[in-house]
């Protein structure tokens, strides 16, 4: 499966995908696109030998579609992409665009809720759990069907930085798992927690090691 990745920043989730999609993986990163010409994600793509494209105008649907079609994208992944995709792009790739959000949807979402804004809102709410959500992209921010979630604990002494680091460590495992599952299935599938695979623990390393390889099962969407 040929995967296009859109990113606005440094691209650590992109790097996780680049690492996971090496041969003989069933998915290949076909192109990386950014709304910032100086985005670190584009440099990561170039180092990996992947075409890197900077958009002149993130609102230009035809330009975005031209890039995706030129590189024969079959799945589009928003990995830290901070702009709303034009409706024409969402329609053209209906059910083939996914986004990763750093909170447990449907909470802490919507316009302006990204990065540390999300983690600060989680801490201010007093929530004891957070974690990434992967969802299908629709015309509204963060409102599409949920594909996968991975809860992580919020500690009483957390700051936005420490919570962000804990969530990001899980994102780097969950996003490749979803993409590879989609490649094997030929389309986006939901990943469900099996048994106690998502046991909440204060040790992120234990979550990463125990849950993704053996604890995710696929459920084909109707």
Notable characteristics:
single chain; alpha/beta; Rossmann fold; 2 domains; 7-stranded mixed sheet
Description:
The strands form three sheets. A seven-stranded mixed sheet has the order 3-2-1-4-5-7-8, covered by helices on one side. Strands 6-9 form a two-stranded antiparallel ribbon. It has helices at 12-20, 40-47, 61-70, 87-92, 115-125, 160-185, 204-215, and strands at residues 2-6, 28-34, 52-54, 75-78, 97-101, 129-130, 133-136, 146-149, 152-153, 189-193, 216-220. The protein is globular. By secondary structure, the protein is α/β, with parallel strands linked by helices. Helix 4 links the parallel strand 4 (75-78) and strand 5. Helices cover 37% and strands 21% of the residues.
By CATH, the architecture of the largest domain is named 3-Layer(aba) Sandwich
Going by CATH, the homologous superfamily of the largest domain would be Formyl transferase, N-terminal domain
Query: What is the overall shape?
Result: globular
Per DSSP, the total helix count is: 7
Radius of gyration: 16 Å
Topology-level CATH name of the largest domain:
Rossmann fold
Based on secondary structure, the structural category is alpha/beta
Q: State the share of residues found in helices, binned by percent.
A: 25-40%
Query: Could you state the oligomeric state of the chains shown?
Result: single chain
Report the portion of residues in β strands.
15-25%
Question: For the largest beta sheet, what order do the strands appear in spatially?
Answer: 3-2-1-4-5-7-8
Low-confidence stretches: 195-222
Query: What count of domains describes the coordinates?
Result: 2
How would a textbook summarize the main sheet?
Answer: 7 strands, mixed
* H and E string: EHEHEHEHEHEEEEHEHE
Distance between the termini: 20 Å
CATH class type of the largest domain: Alpha Beta
Quote the average pLDDT: 85
């Amino acid at each position: 499966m040929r995967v296009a990745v859109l990113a606005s920043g440094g691209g650590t989730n992109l790097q996780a995908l680049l690492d996971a999609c090496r041969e003989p993986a069933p998915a290949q990163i076909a192109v990386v696109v950014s709304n910032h010409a100086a985005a670190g994600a584009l440099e990561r793509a170039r180092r990996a030998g992947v075409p890197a494209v900077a958009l002149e105008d993130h609102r230009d649907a035809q330009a975005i579609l031209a890039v995706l079609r030129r590189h024969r994208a079959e799945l589009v992944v928003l990995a830290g992409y901070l702009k709303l995709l034009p409706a024409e792009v969402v329609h053209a790739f209906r059910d083939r665009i996914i986004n990763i959000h750093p909170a447990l949807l449907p909470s802490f979402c919507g316009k302006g809720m990204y990065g540390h804004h999300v983690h600060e809102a989680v801490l201010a709410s007093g929530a004891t759990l957070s974690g990434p959500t992967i969802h299908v992209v629709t015309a509204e921010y963060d409102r599409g069907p949920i594909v996968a979630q991975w809860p992580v604990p919020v500690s009483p002494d957390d700051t936005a930085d420490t919570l962000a680091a804990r969530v990001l460590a899980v994102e780097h495992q969950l996003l490749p798992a979803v993409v590879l599952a989609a490649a094997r299935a030929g389309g986006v599938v939901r990943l469900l927690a099996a048994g106690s695979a998502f046991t909440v623990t204060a040790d992120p390393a234990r979550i990463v090691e125990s849950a993704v390889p053996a604890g995710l099962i696929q459920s084909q969407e109707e």
